[in-house]
Every structure is written in C-alpha cells, then in structure tokens.
Amino acid sequence: MEAAPTVTAELSSTTPLDVVRLLRSGGGALLVQALLHGQLARIEWQEEKQRLLQLLAITLLGFACLLCVLLFAGGFLLAATWDTAWRLPALAGLVLFYGAATALAWRRFQRLAALGDHAFAGLREELAADAALLRSNL
Fold it and tell me: Cα–Cα distance between 8 and 12 in angstroms, integer?
C-alpha cells in the first residue's frame, strides 16, 4: 500500500529537465529500438503483401475455374434434359448448386480476409511492450 504514494511523489517531483536528461541518456537506445521496430515493420509488411498477392491470385484462379466448370456443366445438363420432363427441375438444381457454390466461396474468402487481423502482430506486441517499459521508467 505504500508503493503508490512513493510513485506519485516521484512523478510529481520529476522536472522537465529530468525528462530531457533521461531522454538524452537513453537516446541511443531509443534510436536503436526505433530502427529495430522499422525493420520488423518492413518484414511484416513483406509478409502481408505476399499474403495479399496470394489471396488475389487464388481468388482470380478459383473464380475463372469455377466459372468455366459451372458454365459447361450447366450447359451439358440443360442439353441432356431439354426434351424431357426434367428440364425445369434440372434448371432449379443448377440455380441451387450455383448459389451453394457462391456461398462456399464467400465463406472461404471471409476466412482468408480475417487473417488480416494478424498482420503486424509482432510489431504491435513490441510497440506495446516498449510503451509499457517507457511508462514504467518515466
């Protein structure tokens, strides 16, 4: 219980000159730490860029393949059932199938897009730890 008044007394007795001295003495370390954070941000940005490019390539390739398969399968099914009583049920089945495939693709896209929340996680953790360290020392 006595630690809180001591910390408050130390903070209230800190002058701007003390803060400048502290920053001057630790300036080199702060600069090195900032450079390390910059390098970490650059590395994580490269990883994020790579993930986004892969996401785009997979999306485009998947969309092109899905479009071709669905187009030809639908055409084949309609051609096979055109002169039968199964024409309308086949058409309804195609629409349901296309809808289900679209929903599946959308869910997969959302999962991949949600990985964006993990971007720069290491940098954010390091910055939070450094901020906490600075707060504790000031």
Answer: 6
| Global confidence as pTM | 0.43
pLDDT score, position 13:
67
Q: How far is CA 61 from the centre of its chain?
A: 21
CA 26 to chain CA centroid, nearest Å: 34
Span 90-116, average pLDDT: 89
Buried b (16+ CB within 10 A) or exposed e, 72-90: eebeebeeebeeeeeeeeb
CA distances from 51 to 20, 60, 112, 115, 118 (A): 43, 14, 9, 9, 11
Give the CA distances from residue 84 to residues 77, 79, 97, 111, in Å, rounded to whole numbers and listed in that order.
12, 10, 20, 42
The pLDDT of residue 124: 80
